[in-house]
Write a structure and sequence with these properties.
Layout: E1 16-21, E2 33-39, E3 43-48, H1 56-71, E4 78-87, H2 93-111, E5 118-125, H3 132-144, H4 151-157, E6 166-174, E7 177-186, E8 199-204, H5 210-222, E9 228-229, E10 239-244, H6 261-281, E11 289-297, H7 300-311, H8 314-321, H9 327-335, E12 348-351, E13 354-358, E14 361-362, H10 368-375, E15 379-385, E16 391-398, H11 402-409
Length: 413
């Protein structure tokens, strides 16, 4: 499978390096092992899958992150991420834990640091033993390639069924200092919060206190990766990491009342949203990006219930693939989403600016031709106006194509 690499300009982040190599974990000659390095003085935040069968590397990464925070790492030395693709090291029992720990131990020995200074991440097939010797033998070369310019190769080195690399980079001023935020992610199928099935790694040279960085990451993920779905499945390996190297020289952001807090939160959230949409656009077999907006609900929970019922409906998703304005499928999805005390006559449903449903049935001014014009687009907005409260929400999804079935049916062959 060819991989499209059309990343935008990826600004290097001072103090954050990436190195990539081909370890032959699943496919010979494919980039599949990445090492990322940053100083121990940097702030680090992370969020992880909620799947009960979370993979061995997730367990180890969470344990090591906790240890780092407890030990309050020294201001000298390095910390590392190590990422392999081709194998998830999930559903692999005690041996999987040993392999994840061995990966950390070996990288620590190579870099003269502690094992807990390394966080491991894996993605790929579930239930197969990690080819640990291939991983370990590839570490020296990945380390050798570490560079602040290494974002593009790393973006390719973390992919599985993805057809394209996914990355984004922004620069903004905080005070008089230029701040960079750069990130990459992978994700294509088995996509559904919490979190969406993906790995993402973001770094900024901003100086941000660790607890504030964690709040910033959680907010960004809640409004990006936790608002996307391809197929309703949540993986065992999802992880999203954010590093702040502190090398920009900006006034340290250590409270939510800091003058630059909202500005940096907006920038971090925006770049996460860019990559969340990139995952949907690269959904396995996807041909359309669908933005589902639910407006005027009573609670966030009911708005999300409506949005995800639509987004997960195979009938709705196949209609989008066929460009078929079968609005009855959307109406039925809203009706079975669990709303209580629901006035169907108040509801309005739109495709972009075309009203489909009003006063409990098809809108009087709706025509099939107008609906078809919208359905023929590659990016479509579905608006469900409940007209019963003040809460709005949105999620992004894609259509369901023949290729989705083919890709997943042949995933292990």
């Amino acid at each position: 499978m060819s991989i499209e690499n059309n990343l935008p300009v990826m600004h290097p982040v001072a103090g954050f390096s990436l190195g990539t190599t081909c370890a032959g974990i699943k496919v010979a000659g494919r980039k599949d092992l990445v090492v990322m390095s940053f100083d121990s003085s940097a702030s680090l935040a992370g969020v992880f899958t909620q799947n009960a069968f979370c993979a061995a590397p997730v367990h180890v990464a969470k344990d090591h992150l906790t240890l780092q925070q407890k030990k309050n790492q020294q201001k000298e030395g390095k910390r590392f991420f190590v990422v392999n693709t081709g194998n998830a090291n999930a559903g692999t029992g005690e041996q999987g834990m040993l392999d994840a720990q061995k990966t950390c131990q070996t990288l620590a020995q190579l870099t003269d640091t502690e094992s807990y200074s390394v966080l491991p991440f894996s993605t790929g097939v579930i239930g197969e033993s990690l080819p640990i010797e291939k991983v370990l033998s590839g570490l020296p070369e990945a380390l050798e390639h570490c560079s602040e310019e290494g974002w593009s190769d790393a973006a390719e080195g973390i992919l599985t069924t993805d057809t394209r690399t996914k990355g984004a980079s922004v620069q903004l001023e905080l005070g008089s200092k230029m701040v960079t935020i750069t990130g990459i992610c992978k994700g294509s199928g088995m996509i559904r919060p919490d979190m969406a099935t993906m790995l993402s790694f973001f770094a900024t040279n901003a100086d941000i206190e660790q607890s504030i960085l964690q709040k910033l990451l959680k907010y960004a993920v809640d409004y990006s990766f936790n608002r996307i779905t391809v197929d309703g499945d949540t993986s065992t390996n999802d992880s999203s990491m954010l590093v702040a190297t502190g090398q920009s020289g900006n006034d340290r952001i250590d409270t939510e009342t800091h003058v630059d807090y909202i500005k940096i939160r907006s920038a971090i959230t925006d770049i996460h949203e860019q990559l969340a949409k990139a995952i949907i656009l690269d959904g396995e077999g996807a041909t359309k990006l669908i933005n589902i907006q639910v407006r005027s609900g009573r609670t966030e929970q009911e708005c999300q219930a409506v949005a995800y019922t639509i987004a997960h409906s195979p009938l709705v998703k196949t209609a989008f693939f066929a460009s078929d304005p079968n609005w009855g499928r959307i109406l039925a999805a809203v009706g079975r989403s669990g709303l209580t005390d629901f006035d169907i006559n108040a509801l309005e449903i739109y495709l972009d600016d075309v009203c489909l449903v009003r006063l409990g049935g098809r809108a009087a001014d709706y025509t099939e031709a107008r609906g078809q014009q919208v359905m023929d687009k590659e990016q479509i907005t579905v608006i469900v106006d409940l007209k019963r409260g003040q809460v709005d929400t949105q999620v992004w999804t894609c259509d369901l194509s023949c290729d989705y079935v083919k890709i997943n049916a042949e995933y292990r062959t």
